[in-house]
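User: Fold this one for me? It's histidine kinase.
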Amino acid sequence: MAEHRPLVARPGGAPPPPQDAAPTPAAADQTARQNLLLTQALDAVQAGDLEAAAEMLRSDNGAPLTLGQVFRLYQTELETQSQQLRESQLRTEQTLDWFANLFRTLPVAALLVDRMGMIIDANAMALDELDLREALRILPVPLRRLTAHAEGELRLAALLPTVTPEHTGVLDDMALRTMKGRARWADLRITQVPARETGGVSPLYLCVLNDRTAWVEAQRARESAALAEHQRDLAQSASQAKTQLLSRVSHELRTPLNAVIGFSQVLLLRHGELPDDSRRQVALIQEAGQHLLALVDEVLQINRAEAGHMLLDTQAVSLMDQARQVLALQQPMVDDLGLQCTLDGPATGQPELMALADPRRVREVLTNLLSNAIKYNRHGGWVRLLHGHDAHHVWLAVSDSGIGMTSQQLAHLFEPFNRLGADRLPVVGHGLGLSIARTLTHAMGGTLQVESVPGEGSRFRLVLPRWDAPPRPPA
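Assistant: Here's what I get for histidine kinase.
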């Protein structure tokens, strides 16, 4: 009970003495006695015994005191206690607000979880990192909802009942998934905290998450890089082994093939010694040998290009001149199919811009493109060659009115030995020509572009760097 402040009654309502007058010993004794009497009477009033309080006041031998004075003292005490209670409540609210702000602004993600494992509150970092802001506005969220796998959910369910005020639960390397499906990784620390309400029997748990997402992603990136480097080394080793094998096999095949072709030519030179049937058979042997030798040469060419052993004689090259030479060689096939073949160059009076390339390799590429445009064309169709340029490149486009290709066929166009179903057509080939053409083009620093529409035809464009083009700034 708070200490009572003394209330002194003045006999007959006399005014108090001046403040600067020193009280006499008799007056001081009288005041102390009245204060003690008032305190005893006030205790009786608070106990509900008004008669005892009145008796105490009547028993005073000094100036008479009244119950009104006692009640006024009681009112003063109540007001003092009420003011003290309001101040204490204000301090408590301020302390609670301070702790709430401290929880909200913790530099780690923190969750408040009930005994059922439901998230009932979260600080700002947890709301953002785990995408809980919208979900917690509606209902509590199960903590297990944030685990990425069933294994993590089982680990969490087994840990939570073991957490006590003396024992902190630990879950390291937990794979999590936010409410929006983002992958996260964290170390969890779970400790028991007192209930919010006094006398509450249900414990609450504080779950703190130490985010390790950046570390895990960096570690996975390092592992992926190491695996990619290992796979690249394996691919390089396999490529080198393939190159050596193809080189040896091709060279071993060329010797007997040259012998077969040479002896067949000798036999065909003996006009009168072989009957007609035998001559036709020998001619087929020679044709088959030359066909197989051409295939071996193509395989060797691809092998050298992939191994980086191709030697180039780069110089200023006229694509128009190379196209004329190739057209002259392909003219018999053009005539057989009745095709209309045209070559369109720069406008009259304008000089042709040269390409920086190897002329022999350019002829090989154009021979392949023009040969395909003729072989896969329709009778009486057309083939058009068009020259063009820009600030850094020159090109020669070969267009035809042939059978064209689908998008699925274009996706596999440059795969070696893939004829895209043309093996069902009466057209001879190995499926290596376009693969070789693109390899040669890339070796010269160019690109080989293609457009095609089924039933309407195709357009291939050989793009090479200009001879006089200024060096391009690095990307």
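One thing worth pointing out: Residues 1-20 have pLDDT under 50 and may be disordered.
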